[in-house]
Amino acid sequence: MKKVLRRFILTTIILFVLIVSVTVYGKSQIKHIDYHNYIEESTYSIITYGESLYKNYPELKKCVIQDRNINMIDDLVKFSEDVLVIDVVDDPIIHGSAIVNTGVIQKIIKGKNLKLNEKIQIYDLVLDTQASFTLYLDGTTPLQKGGQYLVFLNQAPHPSIPESYLFSNSKFGHIRLDKKSSYLKDYENYSISLKDAFQYDYVFLEEDSKDESIKKYEKIIKEAIDLLDNYS
């Protein structure tokens, strides 16, 4: 019972910080940091969240779909407002606990009121940014400047930045296209730098690295690549 209570309290705090980061960021002073030093010195860390978040915060439920509700790529396409191919053109802006990426739209597979070559802002699903570590939700990973990605997006709740988005799922929200998509399993927290995390689309903690989970992940990633090939 104590373990369940601790998990509920922690996940509630996580979502609160995430929503505050998305909402308040645009009202804060935007500033650039030395991102190249930051990604080498800050370690990559994961924190998982439970279903209680979706029950208590319907705003999140409207923009982020749970993994258990995705059995095929069509499920994610239907849930996502926009499915795009983007090029990440700048280092992200970091302020407080928010990390915001800038992408240029190269292809529109699904989307309204969007144009090719338009710039959009996408929030990483991050809880906290520190010099010593960066806390990502549920194995999602950072986007890399110069990379090309297939992304599944929904508009950020109460956006303070025009045209700002969240990934519509942490596990399949972005897939690398200019390099072979890859994942890391049996991860021990704080064991790689943020820079090293660029090479992965998703990271499985040791307790989540079950064969069934890995096979499902590989299946849906393949379906996503096939979706893009059929569009092309």
How is this structure best summarized?
This protein has 232 residues and is of the alpha+beta class.
Q: pLDDT below 50 for ≥5 consecutive residues: which ranges?
A: 2-13, 23-31
The arrangement of helices and strands along the chain is HHEHHHEEEEEEEEEEHEH
Query: Mean pLDDT, nearest integer?
Result: 84
Strand order of the largest sheet: 2-4-5-9-8
Give the oligomer, counting copies of the same chain as homo and different chains as hetero: single chain
Radius of gyration, CA atoms, in whole angstroms: 17 Å
Number of strands: 12
So what's the overall shape? globular
- Structural class estimated from helices and strands: alpha+beta
Beginning-to-end CA distance, first to last residue: 52 Å
Structure description:
The protein is of the alpha+beta class. It has helices at 2-25, 35-41, 52-56, 58-63, 73-79, 194-197, 211-231, and strands spanning 43-47, 82-88, 93-95, 98-110, 119-123, 126-129, 133-137, 148-155, 164-167, 174-176, 183-187, 202-205. Helices cover 32% and strands 28% of the residues. The strands form three sheets. The protein has a five-stranded mixed beta barrel. Strands 1-7-6 form a three-stranded mixed β-sheet. A hairpin with an 8-residue loop joins strand 8 and strand 9. The chain is globular, with a radius of gyration of 17 Å. The protein starts with a helix and ends with a helix.
